[in-house]
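This protein record is not my work; I was only asked to verify it. The record follows directly below this note.
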Amino acid sequence: MKKIFLTIKLTYSILAFILALALTSCMGQSSDPRGKYAELSAIPVDQAKDSESQFAAPEVFTSISALDKTELLSLKVDGTNEINQPHFLEAVESRFYFKIFPKSQKISDFKVEILDISSPLGLVSEKARIENSSRPGMFSIRWKAPKGLIPAGELYQIATMRLQTTVTAASDNNLKGLAKIDVINIIITRDNSVPIIVGKSKLGPNVDEGTIVKFTVDIEDKASLVNEKFPEALITPYKSSNPEAFRADGSSFVRLDASKNLNPERLNSQKGLWRFYFEMDLNQLPYDRTNKGKEDTNSNSVGVCFYMRFISSITTLSEQQQVCVQAQFQAKSPEVEIIENPLAEFIAQETGKIKFKISSENPFGEVDFKDPQKQVNSLFGSKEVSCYNEDKANTEKDLAIKICEISFKPSCVKKDQDKKITLKFENKMGFKVKSKDLEVNFKIKENPSLCTTSEKLKTTPQKVTKQ
């Protein structure tokens, strides 16, 4: 009798433990699963391809079990987000892809099954099926959405699909049999109408660094005629595939104009037309590159591109548009003008001057004649360089304009000579410095009245005669 009592007591203990484990496993589900997924897309069957490019970095796959096991957070899944959800047309079979794979090396195998599909009208009887792919952990779901799920007057309906993943093999026996349920949101549409770009304001072709350029794009979203959700804009990075024609990615410079209360704005002419207001803040542009991929610090501009597309109120995507402009750097090569003695003529033993005006096209530039004494060091004779900035009306110095003067007294020469030197001028703005080289041919004329024969001999190379 005592043995039977112990058996019954042990059976009750096992049942109590199983019941507690089952109750505990129901905890931890997210009440809003939509934010847990990343970029699953539905495509027609005849266009479906197993492509790794369809997937973004997955979010953490959280187990529904509340047991304190770090391995229960070891699964990841690629799913949907609000921009790119699985789409199905009524009565048209299609499929979408997803990935599930273990993070923990302890999990060696698992199975995935569809529990059910439901809509606001109830459970959907049309079954979907899971198909394996040649890639580990990658699956697709094939389904034909039945008619009758979309209410009259509506263009789409959202259904939910519940997927359960169960660990079937693991080196840790405590992990076997543990399950995870995820909910994927599916959009069912009557048609696949996409937004169309119908107009845009002029952007470029040339814009200036340091400025904010505003522009607009008008789209037609037919789905918004019966759906109150606003369409959206999507700006994506530009990727250059031609190293010999460099274009910088400008996606980070483009944003919606926050000064507009309604953005996008529904146009009065037609309810299905929308206007998006953008601004392009061109700040800290990268240098252009040579056809060998090296930075070209002497370039005055760089091509800037980005991709633009629009998302309809039923989350279908417009065609991708490439937008490019030529951005002019704030710091451009300075303009240099010889305003006195443009022929650079000097007479030996007489002091003469040549004067330059260095200016920046951009009024915020800082021009300079860097290391002038070093630059004129190759001239024979006494020389002195002086520079000053022009005054502004408010007595401040105008750093964008500088006057430089070279005072030069050539040494004696036996006959007229030409001396070519290259002078370098700079224009600085922000972190960029642009330079300009100017070749000047100094013409030095002999001066018999001031130069004695002995002085000519000192400054003129002598022939060496072999004995």
